[in-house]
Automatic annotation (TrEMBL):
The lineage of its organism: Bacteria, Candidatus Saccharimonadota, Candidatus Saccharimonadia, Candidatus Saccharimonadales, Candidatus Saccharimonadaceae. Keywords: DNA damage, DNA repair, Excision nuclease, Hydrolase, SOS response. One of its GO terms (molecular function) is exonuclease activity. PROSITE patterns: GIY_YIG. This is Excinuclease cho. One of its GO terms (biological process) is nucleotide-excision repair. GO terms for cellular component: excinuclease repair complex. The keyword DNA repair applies.
Length: 456
């Protein structure tokens, strides 16, 4: 017997790749128990939304095809009945599951079956083969089909594959493969559980890699294994996409959280993984520089970066683009009733336009005292300005148990102290990075007992 419990082979077609902003377009379910198909359900679904041309090209489903088709609400009870008490089987199971779970949740129904993935099943039983997509399985095992990327045919294809695998490997090995997966069902379909078994809960950096071992995501944690596993228990669209692409995990233990944070920042900017959007290195910032005109505090936007000799007291904000810097200034100016003219948002020879609307207190024409205006300016800009370097010299912060340390001055990495205690300065390291600034600032604030000041 292939399964000693009821299972359902499921496939869906959708209007897009993210369950958050896409809908189910077609669903097919084949219930299999006691070695035979007992029920079959297939239906187009009116998604009540636009069907992109790319989806039509892939599936052959046009908007005209779903006119008059039932909505998900219309079929939900029938769907829930056929899947009741069964293990949910699909190819890249978390994709299909996340969409259906979302659809059920939108109408107030819970949906939390056990999951079994035929991608992982194929990898377990046919580890020597290259590629485990449904197209590869169809070609490799001569699986008959009529219409690819239609729900019922794809559901039939994964049922056929399961039968082939059972017949070729026998009941004992097939059962071992499914039991192994059910015991670790949250793992990505292409990731070998053995790679995770060796990872410990220690501080470090982890790198998710695709089948060619190209990095797709870099992360860090003080508890590596726990953090890595948390990715695979999340059904957000980003985590599902990561799960579908990750084939390998590389870990780099570090001595503490600071070392992990700094290494993560460095690797993201060097490797540029496709799923990392934060921490990519910005070589030139839109800098908000403080100046003054007639005693009034002013701001100008300067493109560049902080250098070793830059007076940090004059840097009141760092943004990756001029547009974001200007957007921040506009909002700050509005909330604190600052003068757009003094904030470099408006050019005029007399009073600013906001003054005529009662939104500026007249600093642009000298009607507000410099003392009152400047006090409000400092309060408004406090959240974005760079903090002054709180030490007279460079400092060293610990990286690991070997005694290695990182040398920092003016929030910039200057070099490292090696195991023997000798400082090694690196001119290439001495550049300002906004992400590293935040990391270092937080570590200093929370771990002052580890700070070692160096002689000037």
């Amino acid at each position: 017997m292939m399964f000693e419990y009821p299972v359902v082979f499921v496939d869906i077609e959708t209007t897009g790749g993210s369950y958050r902003n896409s809908r189910v377009l077609e669903v097919a379910v084949i219930r299999y128990e006691n070695s035979e198909i007992t029920k079959e359900f297939s239906s187009l679904i009116n998604p009540k939304t636009y069907i992109p041309a790319s989806i039509t090209s892939l599936t052959g489903i046009h908007e005209a095809d779903v006119v008059g088709a039932p909505t998900f609400l219309d079929i939900a009870e029938d769907l829930a009945e056929i899947m009741n008490g069964a293990v949910f089987i699909a190819h890249n199971v978390r994709f299909d599951y996340s969409f259906l779970k979302r659809e059920f949740a939108m109408i107030g129904m819970d949906f939390s079956p056990q999951l079994l993935c035929t991608v992982r099943l194929s990898r377990y039983l046919y580890a020597e083969e290259q590629g485990h997509s449904l197209a590869k399985l169809i070609a490799r095992h001569d699986i008959p089909f009529t219409s690819r990327h239609r729900a019922l045919d794809d559901a039939k294809a994964i049922l056929y594959f399961s039968q082939v695998a059972f017949n070729q490997h026998g009941a004992e090995r097939f059962s071992a493969a499914t039991s192994h997966q059910l015991q670790s069902q949250s793992l990505p379909p292409n990731l070998d559980k053995g790679e995770l078994d060796t990872i410990k809960n220690i501080p470090g950096v982890y790198i998710f890699q695709d089948e060619t071992r190209q990095p797709i995501y870099v992360g860090k944690s003080i508890n590596l294994k726990m953090r890595i596993m948390s990715h695979f228990q999340d059904i957000t669209s980003k985590e599902i996409r990561i799960s579908q692409h990750v084939h390998h995990v590389e870990t780099i233990p570090t001595g503490n959280e600071l070392a992990a944070l700094l290494l993560e920042s460095k690797l993201v900017k060097e490797l540029k993984p496709i799923f990392n959007r934060r921490l990519r290195r910005v070589t030139s910032y839109a800098m908000l520089m403080k100046d003054s005109v007639g005693g009034y505090a002013t701001i100008r936007i300067k493109q560049g970066n902080v250098e070793t000799g830059t007076n940090l007291n004059t840097v009141y904000g760092m943004y990756p683009s001029r547009m974001k810097a200007k957007h921040s200034l506009v909002e700050t100016t509005r909330v604190f009733q600052l003068c757009p003219k003094l904030m470099s948002l408006e050019k005029s020879s007399g009073d600013c336009f906001s003054y005529s609307l009662g939104r500026c207190k007249g600093a642009c024409i000298g009607q507000e005292s410099t003392q009152l205006y400047n006090r409000r300016f400092e309060l408004a800009m406090e959240h974005s300005r760079l903090k002054s370097w709180p030490f007279d010299t460079s400092i060293a912060l610990p990286l690991n148990a070997k005694g290695e340390q990182v040398i920092i001055k003016n929030w910039m990495i200057q070099g490292y102290v090696d195991e023997s205690g000798d400082p090694v300065y690196d001119a290439d390291e001495s550049n300002f990075d906004m992400d590293e600034y935040k990391i270092i600032q937080r570590f200093i604030r929370e771990n002052r007992q580890f700070i070692h000041t160096l002689e000037a």
